[in-house]
Amino acid sequence: MTSTIITIATMKGGSGKSTVASCLAVYWHLGGRHPTLIDADPQRSIMRIAARERALGGVVVVEDATAEASATARCLSHSSGPVIIDTPGFRSQTTLDCLAAADFVLVPVKASPFDIDRMLDMLSVLKDRADGRRPLFRCLLTQTTRDSVIARHVRSELAEAGLPVLRSEMTNRVTYPEASLWGATPSLIDRRGPAAQEIAAVADEMDFVLGTRQAAA
Ligand SMILES: Nc1ncnc2c1ncn2[C@@H]1O[C@H](COP(=O)(O)OP(=O)(O)OP(=O)(O)O)[C@@H](O)[C@H]1O
Ligand SMILES: [Mg+2]
To answer: Is residue 44 in contact with ligand 1, taking CB distance under 6 Å?
Structure first.
């Protein structure tokens, strides 16, 4: 039995990939799921955060931004809990390979029209998969202001383009960058706080989607 490979990707820099990747990993780790976080980005954002004081609460972090990153993910999926891959914010062979290895592709989208255009580029990459197996795919709105016009607009634009969006959002909160200063995520700082609750909602919704797929298989 292999565990789920979750690839976090967009071709747009700064959309929240590394933040979401570390938040999900810490959340599942605190829940006893033994996730592994692969840093496949040569910028090494995850490695840098993990080197700080709180060390992402002890989450296992593997650095592999080489052409072997997807093979590393497959290998780890035999021995760990969910494998979460943080990819670079540009198109690269490593990203394409990590998309091809994914059971679940999570695409963080900032509530801006520019991010949507890059997202659509990303979808064409997903359709190009050679083995015909489509991974589960969900967009996640990040850095939003709840109930803002732009967030609602982006949500409906994605829906019109036929792109499924998680109901849960990661809103714009200073707690995210502040926690990373200490090598932490909001779940490690204040487990019951509002940011930790939204991370839990995103993770649980992903589990629900994955569970539904498994039940249907
Ligand atoms: N929900 C949020 N609220 C506030 N700030 C956020 C949130 N999510 C991310 N950020 C901040 O936005 C910046 C970009 O986030 P992050 O590094 O996660 O993006 P990225 O997609 O990984 O970027 P890159 O493409 O460069 O790898 C960081 O400073 C991060 O702390
Ligand atoms: Mg990043």
So the answer is: no
State the CATH number of the domain containing residue 94: 3.40.50.300
pLDDT digits (tens, 9 = 90+) for 139-189: 999 999 877 888 888 888 888 888 899 999 999 999 999 999 999 999 999
SS3 61: strand
Quick one: which atom of ligand 1 is closest to the CA of 88? Answer: 27
Task: Note the pLDDT of residue 132.
Answer: 65
**Token pair 């590394």 in the structure block, residue:** 18
Query: What is the pLDDT, as a whole number, of residue 155?
Result: 87
Q: Is residue 130 part of a domain?
A: yes
- Is 107:11 a contact under the CB 8 Å cutoff? no
* Number of structural domains in the chain: 1
- Mutation test residue for ligand 1: of 19, 44, 119, the one with most atoms within 8 Å of CB: 19
Q: Which two tokens stand for residue 143?
A: 């850095």
Q: Using 70 as the pLDDT threshold, list the residues of the chain that sit under it.
A: 113-133, 212-217
Helix 93-101 with 113-127: angle, nearest 10 deg: 70
At 200, list the tokens: 């839990």
